[in-house]
Amino acid sequence: MFRQILSAQWLASRLAVVLLGVLAFAAPLLSVFWGGDLPSAGSDHVAYWLQGSERIAALLPYLALLIGVAAGFLAWSPDHAGRHVYALSLPVSRPRFVALRFAAGAAIVTAPALALFAGAIVASLSVSLPEGLHAYPVQLTIRFLLASLTIYAIIFALSIATKRAQLLTAGVLGGVVFADVLLAAWGVQFSVTAETLVLLTTWPGPLSILAGVWTLFDV
Amino acid sequence: MSNAIETQGLRYRAGKDFELRDLAVTVREGAIYGFLGPNGAGKTTTVQLILGQLRPQSGTISVLGRRVPQDLPAILAETGYVPERPHLYPYLSVVEAIRYHAAFYPDFDRAYADQMLGTFEVPRERRLARLSKGEMGKLHMLLVLAQRPRLLVLDEPTDGLDPVVRRDVLSALLDFCSRGAATVFISSHLVHELERICDWVGLLDRGRLVAELPMEAFKNGIKRIRLTRVPAAAGATPFEVVSRGAEAGGEAWVVRGWEPAMAQWFQGAGAEVRAIEDLDLEDGFVELLRAARGPAA
Questions:
Q1: Cβ atoms of residues B275 and B231 within 8 Å
Q2: What is the ipTM of this complex?
Q3: A78 contacts B87? CB cut-off 8 A
Q4: pLDDT of B185-199, one tens digit each?
Q5: Do B31 and B181 contact (CB within 8 A), yes or no?
């Protein structure tokens, strides 16, 4: 049963996942090629190379975000179109079915992470790192995977939430933005959106995985 | 004989304009039950309640001797359901859709599904999004029949299909029923179609069950009686008068619960019967609906 669910979910999301997987594979390689060959480079070149690496690293959380959103959204979009009638007519308890679907989506999310790992390994092996610098392909992959899974879990949950829960979430988000508009109109130097983002992206916020060190090479 | 479907005091309200009230449907095991009603009567809502897709405000539902919603997975394991609108994943190919569906039903008969694909001439590798309405209807039917279900719940299964496809689908259904003791609950507004295949009929109108009776009783028990001389006072009749209407040279009565011996009542009441006519299901259906809606409708 799980195999068929995984297969169906893969067919629904493969285009997006393959495209994002290619980007995930290419990202560590880009950070290397952007910097050039380290041993022959001077100290300026190392600085340039590290700068490029950091730029690419800054894009990785967004890539993880995209993967999570795509997998979460595509996990249920065919069911939304059919008003969930098919899912509800299958002889599986609803919690079990949701768990199977979640697990299938999570398995799909690991594919781009594996692509990133492969890219990170190739990138690590293709350069000779100067003393003091190290490659962290495993750590980067785990961070990327956890970030993708976190976003996937949030979007997955929102996708199958009741209309009321979805409206409530949209209302809270809209409220935050509206509060900012009001504060700005009154000249108050305080951003609710910025504070909320800080709250969410710093530990123990649910999105804290998106913040932190995303570079493949570090001291 | 036990009941395959039984609802008691079912009430469900959707918005301001629609409500199912005190719905008591009883489908005997082995029956082919036609659930008739005009568009918007509440047929699909009833089907969704029976299959646990909607929760009633009050009332009880039991299917195959089990309670809804408590025992839903066990019920659905033995129930084949064809919804009003196609619900399969459009990006799957026919073969992939069959494989997916089969994974949920341990008794799924793959050989039968394969054979029916050939019989129905449904292209195996085509994506469901590219199937015609007729091909999709056939695919839905073959999927539920290959489940080998004890209960088939079909919601307008032939609506919008051309006559050839409709005949194919219905003959596959009848063939399946003739082999085993499956119960069929088929909702439709295509009265003539149900007349051919059903042995029980329930009539739903505006969320109320207007009538529920064996097809034979429906066919033989509902008559149009043309009178040239009308009884002075109708009083208590041995049959139920569904409707009375004036016509040239007398009156036409539509009666329910008719038996041939009841003709004597008219003689006793001083009336003269010109003709006693059979009503087909559609006429009977229309008359019962008119009666249920009352003169104001």
A1: no
A2: 0.79
A3: no
A4: 999 877 777 888 888
A5: no
Residues 6+ apart with CB under 8 A from B91: A11, A12, A78, B127, B128, B129
**CB contact (8 A) between residue B89 and residue A3:** no
d(CA B11, CA B201): 21
- Which structural domains are found in chain B, ordered by start? 3-214 (3.40.50.300), 223-278 (no CATH)
* Partner residue facing A78 (CB), from B85, B89, B104: B89
Q: pLDDT, tens digit, for every residue of A66-95?
A: 999 999 988 888 888 777 888 888 999 989
Of A1, A82, A89, the CB nearest to B76: A89
pLDDT digits (tens, 9 = 90+) for A126-179: 877 777 778 788 988 999 999 999 999 999 998 888 888 889 988 998 998 888
Query: Residue A90 and residue B104: Cβ atoms within 8 Å?
Result: yes
Report CA torsion sign: A75, A80, A86, A90. Answer: positive
Query: Closest by alpha carbon to A150, among A72, A73, A40?
Result: A72
Instruction: Judge: B51–A93 Cβ closer than 8 Å, yes or no.
Output: no
Q: Two tokens at A98? A: 């949701």
